[in-house]
Amino acid sequence: MKKNLLTVALCGLIFAFTQTCANATGLFYTNATYPVTATGTKVQDLSKLKKGEANTNNILFLVEIGDAGIDTAAKNGGIKKISHIDIQEKSVFIFWRGLKVTVYGE
Description:
There is one protein chain. The termini are far apart. 23% of the residues lie in helices and 42% in strands. The chain is α+β, with helices and mostly antiparallel strands.
């Protein structure tokens, strides 16, 4: 029994270290937002920027549900010209990981 628990724990650590994320990953907990890109689109008035979001969730690295694509986020916000993109990542060890893509533009 102890050998099985050790094997499961080691597999969990391997998954945690081999996550495919862009910037920030904490081993046990992550709550970070970081920029992905800026397109160079000139924005005259920042207060008039539209915002669109798309999400995905992963449970135990076994099931991933959602569509966190840039195109989906832009469509959700009614955005034709993308100004910049942020990604927010939240995770709790290997139990849950959420990814939110936020697209800003006009």
